Structures
1.
Amino acid sequence: MAEKNKRDGFGSKIGIIAAAAGSAVGLGNIYRFPCVAGENGGGAFLIVYLVIVLTLGIPMMIGEFILGRRAQKNPVGTFKALAPSAKGWSLIGYMGVLCAFLIIAFYSTVAGWTIESVYKSVINYYHGKDLATIEQGFNDSINMTVRPLLWQAVFIFISAFVIAKGISKGIEKYSKILMPILIIILLILCVKSILLPGAYEGLKFFFKPDFSKISRQVITSALGQVFFSMSLGMGALITYGSYISKKDNLVTTSLMVGLSDTFVAILAGVIIFPAAFSFGIRPEAGPSLAFNTLPMLFNQMNGGYFFCLIFFILLVIAAWTSALSLLEVIVSYLTEELNLSRKKATIYSSVGAFIISILAAMSLHDGSSLTIFGFTIFDSLDKITSMVFMTLGGLFTVLFLGWKIKKQDFEDEFTNSGTVNIRLKKIFYYIIKFIAPAAIAVIMASQFLM
Ligand code: TRP
């Protein structure tokens, strides 16, 4: 191709799928999904979640890729470039950059617990311990002053390191091999968990929908979880879209990424709920679901030491590839719109996020007064980003796609200039223009009418 492009890009098709799946698959699937599903009735939540992934999540992923690839820019620049006469839309981009900061802040705290779990696996801490001791140990670790902060600093530092090196050499290289290994371990764990005594109750909880439990809260939480898990609504996929080659098919890419993300979340549910029921952990137990159930499960396995260690290492890596996409949103904005060097931009954004993350971690200490409206800062960051920023960002992103950009821009990107997907185009356009904005608006409004 004659076209010379100064922007860094993904080197191959599998590279972009791996990197986008790396962004999507993370703590959101293995830690947050079971938490939210557990609090919202299990099976009822799962059904709503799946419906939202298929009807909104995947179309919105395609939509974000379209915007980024068309504009070849960061989220702020994208809105400016595609609607030059309506500058106000770039606010969505700014909101995305802010949102990225806030997500990294609490995400790195959870990533820190994951590193703590790696540490505990290395020293064989879990071996032979009962549930109460492991739970107590988890609480004690969260309540420590320095150690959680050290782990989250390590996490942010390793993410910043890859980001500073740039896209194709950094992100792609690390994502490609590791995700498949994680999936294999998850599959082994599934089998192990289903064979535990009492596992059936857990499977029933996760798969048997009690339709009477579908409430506004279940729907809102599912929408927030879809956005979080698929990295939607705050520019991460606009940014990645800007690195996708013009030849890649955005529809199949999004389908593969969206479905693998959902597959991993379901695997996590199939591992965690049967095991939790078997060990006597309540489904509403929150972080305990992933961080205490799994070590208990490993304790029951031959080679448990080894599996536990590898699993938590891979989980750190999954979290890491997700954090990369978050940092990249901020860094691409700072380098392209404010002309900072990549190195400076990385330092500012990671240090900034680390400072907020200190507050998030400290707010979880027993008796901490770091609260907002009665929620810890950690919980507030989690809730505000997924239930407000990302859903609002997603709403305006689809409105922008459906009503603001030139129809030609939309068509060219969707069909790779008329070479693919002609048949799907109408349905997709209809979803983006009417169904998606209406659905998101209704779900958001219902939140405030409770
Ligand atoms: N999707 C990731 C996960 O499930 C987290 C994440 C990465 C994210 N980038 C994002 C969430 C952008 C929202 C927006 O763990």
Note: The first helix runs from residue 13 to 24.
2.
Amino acid sequence: MTLKIALTKGRTEKQVLPLLQAAGINCDPIVNKGRQLIFNDDPDYHFILAKGPDVLTYLNRGAMDIGIVGSDILVEQQNPQYDMLDLNTGRCRFVLASTPDFDPSQTKRKIIATKYPLITQTYFEQIGEDVEIIKIEGSVELAPLVGLADAIVDIVETGTTLRENNLKVYAELQAVSTHLVVNRLALKQKRAAIYQLIAQLQKAQKSEV
Ligand code: PRP
């Protein structure tokens, strides 16, 4: 039975491929792919490469059985599918960051720029603060530098982007890692194959530790 897997392309893809290989899946065609987006040669596993938010769209519409995607996207999009396994790759964290002169205790209503409005809203509700949120699609670090926002909520992995743009962390929010998510109907129809894949991944995770 073929499992159809949507893999988040880019950083997530690069970090998770060694684990998939260690779990016995031949990922050589993906490693050497060029601009190819779909990989259907292996009878057991078909792969597509998609942007993170789109991975969930393919899963929600049943076009794919399995998604490999960051927990940032699962939380922000309120994932309705089964979150089956934390792959423990793609580890990073959400932070509140801004310029060195930012005062987190300022009483004026703050403007926060982010790619993740729901996660940002939830954080500020938890600390009892009402803020204005501006949705940005990328390079969020620009917003406080040019006066669009007072601060940002964004993902930090190595810290290089913040450092190189002279931004400081003011608060740590939640941790992020890559997860394996399964379409609800696919779990019923392809149960044995999906649990087999999860067992292989768990075994590979243990031997990597
Ligand atoms: C993410 C994130 C930061 C950067 C953090 O952006 O939004 O900008 O990575 O990584 P670092 O701590 O290792 O520097 P991404 O590269 O996905 O692109 P984007 O700016 O277009 O969102």
Note: Residues 138-141, 154-161 surround PRP (CB under 6 Å).
